[in-house]
C-alpha cells in the first residue's frame, strides 16, 4: 500500500526535518525532506514559517516525550497549526553506568566529553562526575548545539564549546579549539 499509493500521496505534503540524520531516514522511505540544514528547533521553525501560511492544514509533529516547546510555540504564534503526537519515550540505556565505569577504568579520565542531547546530560552527568571526582573540572565539555549547551549550563557544567552546526566537522573544530590543539 505504501509503494502503490500512500508514498505518492504523502509526497504531496512537505516533510520537515531538523537534521541530516533524520533527512536520511525520510529519504530511505521515499519521502523528500526539507529543512535538514536548520540544525535546531528555532531555525526549523523559521524555515517552516517562511513556507507555510497561517491557518493552513495542521502539520503533524511526531515527537518524543522530552521535546521542548520551541517549535510548537513559534508555529502557534505565527498562526500555523501543529498537532503534536508523542511517538517515543527517551530512557536511560540499561548498561549506561556499567559502560561509563568500564571506560573510565580502562582509559582514565577523558580530555573532553561531548553531549548530543539534553537527555544525555540528564542520564550521564552524575555518573561522569562520580567517576571523575575532583578531576571533573579538567574535562572540556562540548555540546552538539545550543539546546544541549543550555541543559549543560543548567546542570552546572561549563560548556567549553558548542558546534556551530550539528555536524561532525563543526563539532571537531570546536573541540580542537577548546583543547588548543593544532593540525588535528
From TrEMBL:
Annotated organism of origin: Pandion haliaetus
GO BP annotations listed: protoporphyrinogen IX biosynthetic process; uroporphyrinogen III biosynthetic process
Tetrapyrrole biosynthesis uroporphyrinogen III synthase domain boundaries: 6-172
SUPFAM superfamilies cross-referenced by the UniProt entry: HemD-like
Cited Pfam families: HEM4 (PF02602)
Protein name according to UniProt: HEM4 synthase
Gene name tied to this protein: Uros
Transmembrane intervals: none
MF terms (GO), sorted A to Z: uroporphyrinogen-III synthase activity
A GO cellular-component term linked to this record: cytosol
Entries under InterPro entries matching the protein: 4pyrrol_syn_uPrphyn_synt_sf, 4pyrrol_synth_uPrphyn_synth, UROS/Hem4
